[in-house]
Every structure is written in C-alpha cells, then in structure tokens.
Design brief:
Blueprint (H helix, E strand, L loop, with lengths): L2 H17 L41 E2 L4 E3 L2 E7 L5 E8 L5 E9 L7
Antiparallel strand pairs: 1-3, 2-3, 3-4, 4-5
Length: about 110
Amino acid sequence: MNEKTMLILATYCSFLTTYVEGRYWNQFRGPDGDGKSDAQNLTIQFTESRNVRWKIPIHNQVWSSLVVWGNQIWLATAHKDGMELFAICIDLGSGKIVHDITVFDVSEPQQL
C-alpha cells in the first residue's frame, strides 16, 4: 500500500471515529448506502501529521470499502494475482491489527 492510500485510510478512520458514535458504517457509502452522514463538526483539514489519529501499512491491495462495527474496522485485501483474499480487522481507537484472516486461497485463479 502506498503512502497516499495509507493517508486516505487514516483520514477515513478519523471521520469514522466521530461518526460511529451515532450509527454503524456497515456497508459501502454508509448505513443507508447514500454516502450521507448525520455527524456534526467533522474535521475537514488533514496532512501527514495533522488530525490523523494513527496510520498503519496494510498488506497487498485493498479490495473493499471499510466497514465499522463498534470499535472495529474491517476491510478486505487480496494479492494482485488473485491467489489469496484476506479479511483484516483493525481496532478503531489504536490502529492495531486485531485479526488478519485468510478468507480463501485460490490455486488457479480465473483470468479476466
């Protein structure tokens, strides 16, 4: 994962830390699938060190939007060649990886 992707993840997580107090962000584009939030007074300015709680490297390529449930952030990653898919759980408060689960391992992925 490149630094731009890590900053986007950290920025998104900072937003979600504020947002999840009201509702869970349980699918792509939020609880209602419309990308809207009822959150108030959100931070809108970010840099590498300003308004970022934490940032961590994520292995392989991210293949999903983030899902926030309670204090957990879930996302899927996969090898570029499609050989393995992982589900990763990150602690919302600390940024620590709690689970890194191999969901499936494909010995002969289909070529598109």
